[in-house]
Each structure stands twice: as C-alpha cells, then as structure tokens.
Amino acid sequence: METRYAHHPEDIKTYTTEQLRSQFLVESIFTEGNVNLTYTHVDRMIFGGVMPMTEGLTISLSKELGVSYFLERREMGVINIGGEGVIVLDGVEYYMKRRDGLYVGKGTQEILFYSKDAADPAKFYINSVPAHQTFPTVKIDINSIEPLRLGNARTLNQRAIYQYIHPNVCQSCQLQLGLTMLEAGSAWNTMPCHTHERRMEVYLYFDMEPETRAFHFMGQPYETRHLVVSNDQAVISPSWSIHSGVGTSNYTFIWGMCGENITYDDMDAVKMEDLR
User: Is the CATH number 3.40.50.300 carried by domain 2-274?
Assistant: First the structure.
C-alpha cells in the first residue's frame, strides 16, 4: 500500500508537472492478480483496485493501520467495473456483475475477491474510510438505481449520476460513493465547478479508449492546475481544490467522498468569472 501525504494549497503553486502528478495522480490502479491500494492522509481514505484472475485475493494489512484486520475501524465501498465476480464477506457470497456496488460495514473480518472468468476478470474498485459505527452490509445492483440526469447537449455535460453509497440508498458513517456516466457527445464533468471544504474526494476515470485523455482541473479556484489522465487512473482531490474535468471523448468516473457530513449537495459554488 502506497502512502500519499497531505499538502498545503500554497505549496502546489511551485510544483512542476511531474511533482503534481506524483502527489495527486495514481496511474496504476488495476494490475492482473494484484491488490493495489493508496493510503492518502487527506481524511485517511484508502482507495485502489483489486483484480483477481484464477485465484482469489484478499487485502493484507500493512503497519500503517495499526489494527488486526482491515475493516476493524473502517467501512468500505466497492464498485465492479470489470467482468463478473464474487466478493465473500465472513463466509457470505455476493455476486457482482459489471457496475454493481457493495457497502461493507465496519467489523467485517474476512474479505475475499474472485473473478468468474480470468479471460474477463472482475475489476473491483474500492474506497475505505475510518468509521465509528457498524452499519449493515448492502449489495447495490446497478439496475436498482434511478440515476439523476443533469446537464444538456448545449453545454457538453449531459450525464447520469448513480448514487451507490448515499443516504437515499444505505447508511454509512462518512463514506459516499457513486458513478457518473457522460453521454456521447458530452465531455465536461462538474462544471460550473465547486469546492467543499468539509469533504475530500477521489476520482477514478474509466471507460476510456486508449487514445482518449481527460484533463482534470484541480487547485484553488483562482489559481488552477491540471492533470492529464488516462483510462483507469485516479486523482486525489483535497477539500480546498476544485475537481472538474473535460475529455477528448465521453467517459465514466467514480467519485468517492468522506469528511464532516454525508450531504451530497453541500458544496461551495465557484462563479465562472472567478476561475483563473
């Protein structure tokens, strides 16, 4: 598990492109037969990918957590963006087709990940945050979610927002998790942009062709920076940063949030004329 530390917004004003990428962009999320996790000190979120092939995988502890098992003091959300798979939680199996989700409550000890077919492996994307209370594990079928449909073709941001871990769907301590799909012909996400000082966020960009790129805008509104992002790459977004993007084609992204509250629309809007 790689560790990324927190940064003061004044510091990144002097970062080179490579420094910015090394601190905020995670380029390798899924590798065959491996668990790849990143532990960010921004609200202590752990995120990453689990890609089982012929054998099952589990999350092995590292000394950073100081506990006897991974979810001893944490909750976790999972969305499968690959082929069919199975997650086993303390002996209970959960079948996970493409884009199904799972909320896993604090105190779950055994976590095993399997692919149904190594030729089309599951790709389990996880977000985990500290938790103070145990809530029930909930399987979230993509077909059971009624998406929010926002934007329009004129502003190039027609999109469907699927809320997986959200008060309307299931209880959690502080984790929110969802998926946004842009329609063909649309390229912008989260524009006009905003910050939320009370919560951080991680974006995973996927469903992108090899030649496609997304330009993820970050930084304080009056002094923005950008990261060029490829398929299956993730960006850490601190609470002081905007998190908006535009792609060379439509794409899908998973957003995960944690912090002071679980109010989805608790945000501080930024006027277009204030962006720099």
Answer: no
